[in-house]
Amino acid sequence: MRCVICKHGEVKPGSVTVTFERGEVTIVFKDVPAKVCDNCGEKYIEESVTKELLAKAQELIENGTQVDIRKFQSAA
Ligand SMILES: [Zn+2]
């Protein structure tokens, strides 16, 4: 698949780090499965993965977490 951002790079499967920042809260997920452009570095994360990340981040925020760095583990 060719990158839609730079139109030159090739998008390859890999893993990325995703950071959520909301006010005082910072949550970092490592090893999130994604496709990454080998030219510009644009990340393509599947919608189902994004949803899981958002749900997990919301849960942590509701539990009063301020800073959290964790490995992403898909529930799927
Ligand atoms: Zn690109």
Fold and architecture overview:
The protein has 76 residues and is an alpha+beta fold. It has one domain (11-71): Ubiquitin-like (UB roll). It has one helix at 47-62; strands at 11-22, 25-37, 43-44, 67-71. Strands 1, 2, 3 and 4 form a four-stranded mixed sheet that branches. A hairpin with a 2-residue loop joins strand 1 (11-22) and strand 2 (25-37). The longest helix has 16 residues, at 47-62. The radius of gyration is 14 Å and the shape is elongated. The mean pLDDT is 95. Bound molecules: zinc ion. The site of zinc ion (ZN) has 8 residues, from loops. Zinc ion binds at residues 3, 5-6, 9, 37, 39-40, 42.
* Name of the CATH architecture: Roll
On the 0-100 scale, what is the average pLDDT? 95
What is the molecular shape?
Answer: elongated
Helix coverage percent: 10-25%
Number of strands: 4
**Largest pleated sheet:** 4 strands, mixed
The CATH topology is given as Ubiquitin-like (UB roll)
Note poorly predicted spans: none
Strand content: 35-45%
Gyration radius, rounded: 14 Å
What is the N-to-C order of secondary-structure elements (H for helix, E for strand)? EEEHE
Bound molecules: zinc ion
The SS-based structural class is: alpha+beta
